Amino acid sequence: MKRYLALSRTTHAILDIANPGFCALLWLGRFPEWPVILGALITVFAAYTAIYTLNDLVGIVGDREKFTGGINAGYSVEASALRYPLAQNVLSYREGWMWFAGWFCLALIGSYLLNPAISIILLAAAILEILYCKLFKVTYLRVLVSGLVKSSGPLAAVFLVDHHPDARLLLLVFAWVFFWEIGGQNIPADWNDTVEDRRVHAKTIPIHFGFEKAGLIVLIALCLTVITSMFLPIISPLRLGFTYLLVSALVGLFLLLRPGYLLFRRREGRLAAKLFDHASYYPLVQLVVISLFVLIN
Q1: b/e sequence 37-63, b meaning 16+ C-beta within 10 Å
Q2: DSSP string across the chain
Q3: pLDDT for 96-115, tens place per residue?
Q4: Taking the chain (297 residues) in consecutive chunks of 10 residues, what is each chunk's mean pLDDT?
Q5: What does the pLDDT look like over 150-174, one tens digit per residue?
Q6: Residue 294, exposed/middle/buried by CB under 10 A (0-12, 13-18, 19+)?
Q7: Does 1.10.600 match the CATH number of domain 2-296?
Q8: 257-285 burial by CB neighbour count: b if 16+ within 10 A, else e?
């Protein structure tokens, strides 16, 4: 079972679930009914498991090329001797597709029962994930596709609690997740894999622009993430005042801006991994914060 959990990056996927949870709770302003929560948890876990698995399935050739000289140490939330089990031939290609198909079908069924619009978002996310993998050696602009994929979960969560959401408010949620993914996840992850990516002539932000400009892009994206988070109370029926904004800003400062600034100044690979780790916990801490404010209200 460890091989399959490594394939779908379950530790990271569980952390990612906090993002749609935060957005749904903020948008609704209260906890949904327990049957809805249970159905949503099963569906979102299946969806993230399937999409992460799809990444390794579509990118298996590139992964094998990258890691012919060995797999790097990775970062704490993904560090494992079983990372990229398909590329290491720990799992067969057929086993990987079966694992993906089971979880994706479960996610499709669950999303359709919750709201048919969510199943459309899930299908779009899968197509975009395939496109993201195919652009590995084509263009560094694939980072934008990554932002679209990661935004699909939170947007789907909004459709769970509101079948007719305001498009302008949806755009605000999208922008917040999009900037977080680019500055806190995608570029730091590529930075960590720079040696392997250069080996196969991959197209990434750190390789194309160099570490100095990549660090600046990261810092700008993270600043935009924190700035955007200050406007998120607009989407909520809760009366979230100065205290919430202060707490949210402090979370962004310590989990995003501080490690992002250190990476920008020092441009060390280990700091890219550290930023990735800190940013991975950012949605979870935001979920805890909004949960406390919901309970207080």
Answers
A1: eebbeebbbbbbbbbbbbbbbbbbebb
A2: -HHHHHHTTHHHHHHHHHHHHHHHHHHHSSPPPHHHHHHHHHHHHHHHHHHHHHHHHHTHHHHHHHGGG------TTT--TTSSTTTTTSS-HHHHHHHHHHHHHHHHHHHHHH-HHHHHHHHHHHHHHHHHHHTTTT-TTHHHHHHHHHHHHHHHHHHHH-SS--HHHHHHHHHHHHHHHIIIIIHHHHHHTHHHHHHTT---HHHHHHHHHHHHHHHHHHHHHHHHHTTGGGG-SS---HHHHHHHHHHHIIIIIHHHHHHHHH--HHHHHHHHHHHHHHHHHHHHHHHHHHHH-
A3: 899 999 999 999 999 999 99
A4: 75 91 97 95 96 91 74 57 73 90 97 97 97 95 96 97 96 98 96 87 94 97 98 95 96 98 94 94 97 92
A5: 999 999 999 999 999 999 999 999 9
A6: middle
A7: yes
A8: bebbbbbbeebebebbbbbbbbbbebbbb
> In this structure, what token pair is assigned to residue 38?
């249970």
